[in-house]
Amino acid sequence: MSAPACHATLTSTMTDQRQGRMREVTVQAIDATRLEPLIGEQRMAHYLAEAAEARRLLAGRSVVNVNSTAAGGGVAELLQSLLAYARGAGIDARWLVLDGDPEFFAITKRIHNWIHGVPGDGGPLGEEERRHYERVAERNAQELRALVRPGDVVIVHDPQPAGLAPALRRLGATVVWRCHIGADASNRWTERAWEFLRPYLAGVADAIVVSRLPYAPPWADLARVHAIPPSIDPFAAKNQPIEPDHVRAALAYVGVLAGEVDGSHVSFVRRDGSQGRINRHADVLQTGPPPPTNAPLVVQVSRWDRLKDMAGVMTAFAEHVEPGLGAHLLLAGPVVTGVADDPEGGEVLRECIDRWRRLPHHARSRVHLACMPMADPDEQAAIVNALQRHATIVLQKSLAEGFGLTVSEAMWKQRPVIGSAVGGIVDQIRDGRDGLLLADPTDLAAAGAAIEQLLRNPLEAARLAASARERVTQAFLGDRHLERYASLFAQIAAVQAAAPPTELPH
Questions:
Q1: Which of 101, 95, 103, 96 is nearest to 123 (CA)?
Q2: How far is the CA of 419 from the CAs of 184, 400, 432, 437, in angstroms?
Q3: Contact present, 229 and 427 (Cβ < 8 Å)
Q4: Which tens digits make up the pLDDT trace of 271-295?
Q5: More confident: 474 or 15
Q6: Please, what's the b/e burial string for 365-388 (b: 16 or more CB within 10 A of its CB; e: otherwise)?
Q7: What are the φ and ψ backbone dihedral angles of 68, each rounded to 5 degrees?
């Protein structure tokens, strides 16, 4: 599409954010035994035993998850699959999305950036921001009184709903704060972010769950900190198998790949087992036609977030990958109006477009920016699935990363992955075995050299890809994830049984 059309996407700002009540997301139960062909009989039996023990411990209680959005990010995708399997195991798992206004999400995006160790928009986190944060928390807490019962386990995800923790404790709930983000090293930004959150969580949360132990808040009681890495669902629309001709047809239909479109080949299977269809197109910024089907395609799929460094990926590819290799780069992210809790998305996309416009014409013709439709989360996931499966190389050149599930998703699809040696990416990729790690994510020449290395050595790329699939099978599927939560619930129950009751001040 033309540049003006892409700009039309940007003129629609975040005014469509939720204004109203906390809402519940419906999640259908899924039987986890469908994992058995992938994980084996013995591992399946162990999972079923752990699930039975969790049912016993939680009898009569709900596990309520609270986060800030039902679509558009890794946490939302994770909850879709994790809660479906939990419900399939007979656990009353529920999902609530808090209501916030643009100012609230600007504040929590600032906290998000500071926890990652970067200044973000450079705005303050002072008493005025705290008052607004607490007003939103109090409004949502009033609704929780009708939704949470004493004894329920409430898992509060990330900074946005952290302010609900004291009210939840007063309701008699067991509170688990699950933080999906973090930084490898402390600095003044991380320290200020943790101090902002400390009054709501320190001495309040019964447990704190992080993706990696170094991500624990500095004031946390380490006896209450648990490391639980995320997982992918191999049967979700984002990860289910797709025939190569269907992949090409879907991408041609969406508009990110050249070729004829056969409408019968753009269907997918939804979480409930019904057939879905890709009906929407991506908003694509490019010079000339989409990439040819036979051209090597380098792909990064991320939010339009500065920490994902989409602009840096573009520069690394344009300046440091030999044009004679014939490769194209596709940067794909969500339509910026589709992610309610990320107010920076439109600004970052505009920065990427400006960077793209400044590229020399010969480089610009090999670089494509795409905004994925977000109206139907399963449809969007199916498009990303096809993108990753068609990719010759998948990148995740983040400057900071909580975990980065896009890495495991691409590894599962047997794609060679190049990732930054930051955060949870290093827990997924063993450098030179399952993919390649960039020691310095700001070294654009090194990023370009790694891309060239795999483009020039398809046998090496295939070796890494094969190992990557096995790595994800062993460590990052849903049964491992749920077993760790079952163990966490058992530990909390043991501590609560041994300790006298405590009260929080009103």
A1: 103
A2: 15, 11, 11, 5
A3: yes
A4: 778 999 999 999 999 998 999 999 9
A5: 474
A6: bbbbbbbbbbebbbbbbbbbbbbb
A7: -110, -10
User: Rounded to the nearest 5°, which phi and psi values hold at 2?
Assistant: -80, 165
Q: What is the pLDDT of residue 501?
A: 62
Task: Locate 506 and state its tokens.
Answer: 């009103």
Report pLDDT digits (tens) over 142-164. 999 999 999 999 999 999 999 99
Distance of CA 425 to the CA centre of its chain: 12
Residue 153's identity, in one-letter code, is V
Q: How far apart are CA 403 and CA 429, in angstroms?
A: 11
Backbone φ and ψ for 178, nearest 5 degrees, come out as: -105, 110
Q: What is the DSSP string of 451-502?
A: HHHHHH-HHHHHHHHHHHHHHHHHHSBHHHHHHHHHHHHHHHHHHHHHSPP-
Looking at residue 268, the DSSP 8-state letter turns out to be: E
Q: In what order do the strands lie in the sheet with 23-24?
A: 23-24, 92-97, 62-67, 153-157, 174-179, 207-210, 225-227
Give Cα 394 to chain centroid, integer Å: 16
Backbone angles phi, psi at 332, to 5 degrees: -125, 130
432: left (phi over 0), alpha (psi -120 to 50) or beta: left
The mean per-residue pLDDT over the stretch 48-56 comes to: 96
160: which 2 tokens? 């946005």
Burial class (CB in 10 A: 0-12, 13-18, 19+), 149: middle
Tokens standing for 368? 């494509």
- Domains of the chain (ranges; CATH) run 41-231+478-498 (3.40.50.2000), 244-475 (3.40.50.2000)
Cα–Cα nearest to 56, from 480, 498, 490, 501: 490
- Of the candidates 216, 19, 199, the residue with the CA atom closest to the CA atom of residue 105: 19
- Quick check: 503 pLDDT over 90? no
Maximum Cα interatomic distance, the chain, rounded to a whole number of Å: 70
256 exposure class (CB count in 10 Å sphere: 0-12, 13-18, 19+): buried
- Alpha helices, DSSP H only, in 155-222? 165-170, 188-201
C-alpha 112/C-alpha 103 separation (Å) is 14
State the first-to-last Cα distance of the chain, in angstroms, to the nearest integer: 57
Two structure tokens written together for 488: 């966490």
Q: Which residues is 284 bridged to in the sheet?
A: 370
Residue given tokens 């950036």 in the structure block: 113
State how far the Cα of 210 lies from the Cα of 228, in Å rounded to an integer.
Answer: 6
Residue with tokens 């999906």: 180
Token pair 């004031």: residue: 219
* CB within 8 Å of 188: residues ≥ 6 apart: none
Torsion, CA 83, CA 89, CA 92, CA 93, rounded to 10: -10
Contact between 403 and 211 (Cβ < 8 Å):
yes
Nearest 5°: phi and psi at 208? Answer: -120, 125
Residue 10 pLDDT > 50: no
Q: In this structure, what token pair is assigned to residue 215?
A: 């991500």
Q: Does residue 153 sit in helix, strand or coil?
A: strand
